[in-house]
Design a protein that fits this description.
2 copies of one chain form a homodimer. Chain A has about 150 residues and is mainly α. Chain A contains 8 helices and no strands. The longest helix of chain A has 23 residues. The interface between A and B is large, with 60 and 56 residues. The structure holds a DNA duplex (30 and 30 nucleotides).
DNA sequence: CCAGTGCGTTTGCAAATGCATACACGCTCT
DNA sequence: AGAGCGTGTATGCATTTGCAAACGCACTGG
């Protein structure tokens, strides 16, 4: 067994960045790293240290552990905590709210899977979500909910 | 700001090692790193990369995450809700999708809390997010909070 | 007494990280 | 035509990682 996803950490970061629709420099600024270095990291030229990885995770607003798992730095013995199970087990929300969350999550999964199978389609496949209507700019300013 | 815990990771490793009653060289061998380097790491002279950390964790038979937390590489905020933790740890959705889910969930929580205190009076009738526009079919009937 | 073995530490040194600077390309104005 | 601003990329260089080899110290036993 060779290591399948050794270099995938860079791809993953770039994927997350482009999905978030922020530029390399923006992410670098938010993460507190230099943009040329981030570029090299995304292409697998350089392998970032844990600190850099952590800061990138912060800049991307994703969990550090997700990055570590992708980088193969965590054995991921756990079945990547099931979101649906957690939602169903939550007693602080109503049944209807639960249903909304489940539906949205599943639709995300479905569209992501569809995007995968589409291969490299230059045009953005169906814009999966009107996230802009939720928070406007998720990137620069902090998001605010009423 | 965050410089104090630089050496604590080394202390932690050494603590774990002595507690396991194995020598520096033994641990180095099991972890697949050189013993001189491990010595430096334990005294805070060198700061190991994530890979080394992961291997040391393996050698110590402890969870990688414990080490990362000690090294300050994982923020380990309070347990939060299981739902949020699961969402943040999910690698199958994009950062923006993640943020949408988090926002929706938090808004649910907030409104529920407001409903508790106010009795049955909807404090803010304006829906914080039109999640229905995200997936269209998910909640055709809409979801007015009780 | 001092060879043999274990321990942890120090000492160079190749290789890598991470940054600042400069570069090439694309786009929009005036 | 350019100037200007945006993107991502190559290059030079200080700093650091991480290792192999050599070191000092304590304990054994032939």
């Amino acid at each position: 067994m060779e290591l399948p996803k050794v270099g995938s950490i860079g791809e993953y970061i770039r994927e997350q960045r482009t999905q978030a629709k922020i530029s390399l420099r923006q992410l670098a600024a938010q993460a507190g790293v230099s943009f040329p270095y981030l570029s090299q990291v995304e292409r697998g030229v350089r392998k970032p240290s844990a600190e850099i990885l952590n800061q990138i995770a912060k800049g991307l607003r994703i969990s550090s552990q997700a990055l570590y798992v992708q980088a193969g730095l965590i054995d991921e013995r756990e079945p990547e905590s099931d979101v649906l199970a957690a939602i169903r087990a939550d007693v602080t929300i109503t049944g209807r709210q639960r249903q909304v969350l489940v539906d949205i999550y599943e639709s995300f999964r479905k569209e992501n899977k569809a995007a995968e199978n589409e291969g490299a389609q230059p045009t953005q496949p169906a814009e999966p979500l009107d996230a802009a209507s939720l928070n406007g700019h998720a990137t620069s300013e902090g998001y605010n909910l009423p």
